[in-house]
Amino acid sequence: MDIFAIILWPIKWAIEAILVGFLTLFTAIGLESAAGLTWVLSIAGLVVVVRAALIPIFVRQIQNQRKMLEISPDLKKIQDKYRGKRDQFSREAMSRETMALYKKHGTNPLSSCLPILLQMPIFFGLFSVLNSSFNGLSGVGLLNEELSAEFGRATLFGIAPLGSTMVNNGGNVWVIVIAAVLIVLMTASQFITQLQIMSKNQSPEMKASPMYRQQRILLYILPVVFLFSGVAFPLGVMFYWFVSNIWTMVQQFIVIRNMPTPGSEAALAREARLAKKRQRKGIVDEEPEGTVIEEPKKAQRQQPVSKNRAKKKGGR
Length: 316
Known about the structure:
The protein has 316 residues and is an all-alpha fold.
């Protein structure tokens, strides 16, 4: 019995249920169930469901990143304490103190990778579902033989089967072209997402830490990983990956704008925006909208008075 297949079985069942659910919805509003657009939109719906379910984990990721920022000075003290010591006793002591620090503050450096790690089974599950449909096999759940055959025949833009890969396309040049475009878009969206985090949402203390240097290296390594791994994924999986990257990019933009890391460039920009907003609000409060400001009354012109009349007024 294939252990990997057993692990993927419930994931594949859930993927098929979501895909068939969105397929039913889109066919109910008039789209053809066998059309590639319908299946592409169903895959996009799968992205929305999965990423929405991961929002609590994403929030926890942000909290863990903030905690890592808080303990970075203590972490640096431990590293400085054992700097230059290569013996096994010192390495073990440094590891114990570091893990004790993580445990005390309830954080872990690997927590930032959790959303990506949780999505990997989805990628492989969707890959398996597409591969089965492309080979004419029925799914493990709601994707029956008829729907599986439709999914296997579905084409992106009517020219490229969703189950084809850049290296296994039956000589279809359009598959190679569309796959190359998707790889470039996936790589660019991933790079932009990481770049906005590195450039705008890091405090000066974080930029001086070893973790920041590691993230800088990953900034350039991850796009290369996408570049080489993308050639083996079907177009349907690549489309899922691209839409998921767009979700991540927009999500990070919202977080950096509204909940930036304290002391970062994004935090200073947010404080400047709030200061301007308070200043505008203060001006409006001083002169509420609809208030009628009365014009000063014009001074009345004094009529000339004769000398005799002036003397009489003075005498009174």
